[in-house]
Amino acid sequence: MSETVLRVENLGKCFKIYRNPWDRAREWVSWRDRTYHTPFWAFRNISFEVKRGEFLGIIGENGAGKSTLLKIITGILKPTEGTYQLNGRVLSLLELGRDFNFELSGRANALYSAELLGFPPGYVQSRLAEIEAFSELGEFFDRPMKLYSSGMKSRLAFSLFAFLDCDVLILDEVLAVGDIFFQQKCYARMETLIEKQTTIILVTHQLAAVQQYCNEVVLLHGGEKVFQGEPRQGILQFYQLRQQQSAVPQPKSEPKPAPSPPPEVQDFFWPTDENCVVFEDAKADDADEAEAAESYAACLTRYAMCNQDGKFTAVFQAGEQAYLCCEFKLTEPMEEVPIVAVMITNQFNVLVHSKSTHQQNAIAPDSVAQGDTIRFYHHIDLNIAPGQYVLGFALCSLSPALYACLGKLPWAEINNQIKICRIYDQVGAFHVKPQNTGPTHYGLCDLPGEGKLQVVKAAYD
Length: 461
Prior knowledge:
A six-stranded mixed sheet has the order 5-6-7-3-8-9, sandwiched between helices. Among the domains are: 1-89 and 166-171 and 193-245, P-loop containing nucleotide triphosphate hydrolases (Rossmann fold); 268-433, abc- transporter (atp binding component) like domain (Coagulation Factor XIII, Chain A, domain 1). The chain is globular. Helix content is 22%, strand content 31%. By secondary structure, the chain is an alpha/beta fold. A hairpin with a 4-residue loop joins β14 (337-346) and β15. It has helices spanning 21-29, 66-73, 106-116, 128-135, 150-162, 180-195, 207-213, 231-245, 287-292, 400-403, 411-415; strands spanning 4-18, 37-51, 55-59, 81-86, 90-93, 168-172, 199-203, 216-221, 224-229, 277-278, 298-306, 315-317, 321-330, 337-346, 351-356, 373-381, 387-398, 419-433. It contains eleven helices and 18 strands.
C-alpha cells in the first residue's frame, strides 16, 4: 500500500475583512469585546489525501481558494480550523522569484536559494550543470536576474526546483509563462519525477495539462471541495459549474418525462448524460445581438466534446476525430428550418473553423414546435495546429422555400436571409496536442492536398 505523504482534514481558512484601518485598531483595543470585521471564509471543510508518487491537480475558478490552500500546506499561512500532515521534504514554487535576489546572477541565486531551502552548501554544485542546461538561459545564467524577463525567471525557478530532491513538489501556475517548448520540457521532467516516486501537487487553469498528466484532481468551488477523483470527470464537472454560474434565473416548472425518440432519429449519435455538460437556462453571450435580430426564443441546454469512444475530453491529438454536440430547447415555436453552427476560435480570438447544417445540406424539418429540443453533432477531423481553442455554437433559422433552394441560389442571397436566434461563442475550451510523429503541417490548419517531387536532369552538351 502506498505511503500517504499529505493528509488534509477539515481544513478551513477565514480572513477578517475591515472597512478601514481604524476598525482594525478599534477591535484590537477593545480586547475582543466587540468585533469590527466581517469574516470571509476562503475555504472550509477541505479533506483529501495524496499518496507517494501521485500527481494531483487542484482546479477551480479564480477565488475558489486554491492558492490559499497551498499557502497553508506549505506553512506560509496558518489554518483557522482543521489539520494537515506532511511527511517528508516539501518544496513549493508558489511565486516566481520570491526567494531570489535580482542583483545576483542566476548561478548565484541557484546556489543561495538551495541553501535557504535547507540543502547543504555543496549539494547544488554537483547538479548545477544540469540546472544550467535545462534552463537554456545561455550566457544569461551568469548575468544579474534584474535583466531577466518573466519567462527567464520561470525557467530558472523551475529548473532549480526540478533538480532538488524532495518528497513533495508543489507548483502554483508556474508554467503560465514561458514558451511552449519549455513547458513541454517541464512536463517531461515532472513525469520523470513521478517515476522516482516524487509527489507533485499542481494548481493550474490549464485543464488540458491536468487531464494529460494528473492521476487525480480536486475541484474547489466557492471555498468547498465539490469533487475528487478521475481528472476527466473533474474537468467535466468544472465546466458544469462554470455554466451554472452564468445561468439566468427562470421560474421553475414541473419536469415532464422525455418522450421516446422517433425511429428516424434513434440512430443519431448522442453522448450519454455523464459525458454532457448541462446548461441551466444559460445566458447567451450575444443576447443583445439575438434580440436585435428579432430571433426566436431558445436556450442551450447541453453540450459535449467527445472522442471516438464517446467520452468527454478536453484534450485531443492533432488529426484526431472529435464529436462536438449541443442541444437547444425552444421556448417559442420556430416556423422556419432550424440551422445550427459550430465555431472554433483560437487563443487570439481568430475564427479557425465554423460550419453550419445548411452548409452540410443536413436534413431538417420545416418548423419546430415550442418546447421541442434541437440536437446537433458535428464530426470533425482536428487537422489544426496544436494549441488552446474555444468552442461555440449558434442557432439560426431559414425559410423552407430558401432552404429548398440550397445549391441553386447564390450563397450571398441565402445568407442574407438567415435569422440569428442565439449565439454562444464561449461554451467550452479544449486543447490540441502535437502528433507523436511531429508536425504534419505549418500554420493554423492542414488543407487537403497532395505534393509530388520531380528532379529534371541538367542537359550537357
